[in-house]
Design brief:
- This protein has 429 residues and is α+β, with helices and mostly antiparallel strands.
- Helix 2 runs antiparallel to helix 5, helix 3 runs antiparallel to helix 4 and helix 4 packs across helix 6.
- The chain folds into 3 domains: 263 residues, no CATH class; 84 residues, Alpha-Beta Plaits (2-Layer Sandwich); 73 residues, mk0293 like domain (Ubiquitin-like (UB roll), Roll), CATH 3.10.20.300.
- It starts with a strand and ends with a helix.
- Strand 18 and strand 19 form a beta hairpin.
- The strands form 7 sheets. The chain has a 5-stranded mixed sheet with strand order 11-6-1-13-12. A 4-stranded antiparallel sheet has the order 15-16-14-17, with helices on one face.
Amino acid sequence: MKSLYIDASNSGISGDMFLTSLLELISNPKDVIDELIELKNYLKGVKKLEIDLVKVKRTGIMVNQLKLDIEEDKHQRSSKSLKNALLTFLSEKKYSESAKNYAINVLETLFQAEAEVHGKLIENIHLHELSSVDTLVDILGVTKTLDKLGCFENDFKIFCSKLPLGAGKVKTAHGILAIPAPATIKILEQSKLVLVNGPIESELVTPTGAALLVNLDPTYLIYPNEMILEKVVYSTGVKEFKDFLNILRIFYGESFYLETKSLHNPLQKYIEDITILETDVDDVSGELIGNFIKTLETKQILDIQVIPSITKKNRPSQVIKVLCRPENSFDIIETIISELGTLGVRFNTIKRVCIDREIIITKIQINENEYDLRYKVSYFQTEKDKKVVNIKPEYEDLKNISRSTGRSVREILIYAQSKLKILYENYKI
């Protein structure tokens, strides 16, 4: 089957960048551009609309960019006027029924988000940033190219990488807003897209880009799927950043049949980045290592291991391995060097699946006294319910109750286990 893999991990997504990439995948992009230029006749107040697909150099490679030259009398339009223009254009041009439905849904998604954010009915909203003719250019252009590629047919599959949202602030007609903008977040709510903040302070996902992507309902994959690759296309927007590519890539080709459980496995959404820090020490006493572990209690680490080993000089040593979030790695590396005196620390950021966990507090009765006992419930969310993986009592609570009652931890654990079935059945419900 044919498929697209949308690699937005180094760009985010906007309507014009998405359109620009897709145009290079079809044989007659000029025909689509010429048709889109006719939109100036469908909206009042558009004095000039010129569209051009150009090549620009970014980080040493040539990529596509869309040039728009627009002159408009109107600075805001109603949702009704935009929708009427869209419907008229769709009915007069050759769009398939599936394509028409997609374009309408994208525009409705934008309207619904704006209405919910501003607390108004859709028919009462007056659009600012979204009211320009370029919003319709993006929606209708993307729809037309996807239609030409056959993306709305049943044997076509669309995949997407994680989506960086950016950070910081953006100036809008309503004032200064935090990035991502409220309308963008509203559109992305309840979607299956995997979102990440940053990595720079700029808007990387626009409302139109989000609406176009959400309504395609792509399947998340970390990397491009197995395919016989026909073409890879690149596009960029008008913004240039020092430490961020801002280049959208789309892989197009013939994929193997991928409707497997792995693509729709609920564990896909639990993938996250994790950093492993590692060093070897052969001249540090047990007391210093113990103090080092105590020092790390104040740091944002996830786990630590001390593993006995032998060095190349046949001396006994320890491998110190620390797990942490990538953003905390260098702070912890500094602590490792300072506390252990090691000359170097290896680090590597990898992927892991980390499921949800929750603490439930219940009471157990021993010797006619009640004690609070915390249970850690680990689970992951499926489409239908929560799948419980394990329920176990917190060891620190077992020790505290043991000290209070004079009974062994093993005995307290027997009392604790009597609650497991009840907790399991209640939690599933």
